[in-house]
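input
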Amino acid sequence: MSTTALDSTALDTAAWPSPTPRGTAPRRYRGPFARWPRAADGVLAVTVFLTTLLVTEGPGDSLVIRSFGDLPLIAPLVFAAAAAALYRRRSAPLVALGVNLAGWVALLGSGHADLGWGTVIALYSTGRYADDDRWAHAGVAAALVVVGVDGLFEPVPWAEQAVAGVVVLFGAWYVGRRMRQRGERAARLLQEQAAEARRIVAEERTRIARELHDVVAHRVSMMTVQAGAAKTVAAQDPESALKAMAAVEEVGRQALDELRHLLGVLRPETGLDALGPQPGLADLDRLVEQIRTAGVDVSLADGAREAQTALSGLPARVDLFAYRIVQEALTNVLKHAGPGARAEVRLGVDRKAIVIEVLDDGRGTAVTQGAGPVQGDGPGHGLVGMRERALLLGGSLDARRRPGGGFRIVARLPSGGEPA
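output
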C-alpha cells in the first residue's frame, strides 16, 4: 500500500468516544429517595408508623384522630413491626411485604387493621426491587386475598371495598414493576452503547495499525534495498554508494514524517511534534509559572521540592507521564475554574509509588474556552488522557469534586514504571 493512498480525512473523522466536558451535560433531578435512600426510607417508615397509629377512618370515608382507649395492646406492636419492615423495602422487599400482610391478617376483625398504606408501599417496592418474580407474584396474590377478606369486616358493600382495594394494591405493584423494567432497559441501552463504542475503537485501532504496518513495511523495504545496493557497490563505485545512502536517508525522513502524521491524527490538536528534550518533574516550576501567568494562583506544596529531588532518577517514561498529568490537571483548572482560581500541586513518595495531587477551589472569575498558554493533550481528552497515562504505567487516577467546591485529582504511579 503506498502512502498516497492513505485517507487522512477518514482518520480525522474517526468515531472516537470522547467524554462530555464538565458543566455541559444536563443535570437530572434526583429526589431524596435517590440521593439519601437509607435516610429517606427511615423517614418513610416513621411517617407510616405515626400515621397508622394516630389516624384512622371515620364516618363517610373521613380521617379522624384515633382514640387510644379502645386500641388493643397488640396493635401498636404490629404497626411498629410493619413500619420497621419498610426500612428494608429495597434490600428485602418480599420480607417487607410479608410482614405487612402478616400484621394485616393478625388485626383482621379488630376494627384496627389499618395497614393498607404500608402494604401499598411494600407492593410497590416488590415490583421495583424484587428479583424473584415467582415470589413477587405470590405476594401480590396474597395481598389481593387479604384485601378481599378484609372487605367482609367493613360496613361498606363488600364488592365496592374489594374492587377498590384490588385496584390500588395491584396498581402499586404494577407501577413499581414498570419502573424496574424502564431502569433495566436504560441499563441495557448504556451497556449496548458502551459495547458499540468499544467495538468502533477496536476497529479503528486495527485499521490504523494496518496502515502503520503498510507505511513502515513499504519504506523500510525501500531502505533495505538501497542499503544493500550501497553495500554491493561501495568498493567499486563509491559515488553510487553515496547516492544510495542518500536515498536511504531521504526515505527514512519520509517514513518518519508519515509516521508522525498518522500518529498525530489520533490527537489532531497535539503540539508535541517538535523534536527536543521531553519535560519532567524537574520542570514543574516552569509549568507553575506558565499557569500563574494565565491568571490561576498555583502553588507547590512544601514537600513538593524535596520530592522532586528524591525523584530525580526516575525512568524517562514515568517522569514524562507524571509531568503530563500535572500539566493536564492544571490546564483543566484554567479551562473550567478560570482565572482567579487557586490551585495547589502536591508531590510525594508512598512506598514504591509517586503520589501526585492537584487541588483547586473552583472559584475563578471566568471560564475560558480553548487553549491556554500550556500545550497539553488537546481539548476533549482531559481526564481520559490522564487516566490512560496512569494505567499504562500500572498506576491509578482518582478524580472527583471537592465538597466545598473545586476539583481534586490524585494519581499514583509506580516509580519504577512497573505495576506496584
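quick obs: The longest strand covers residues 342-350.
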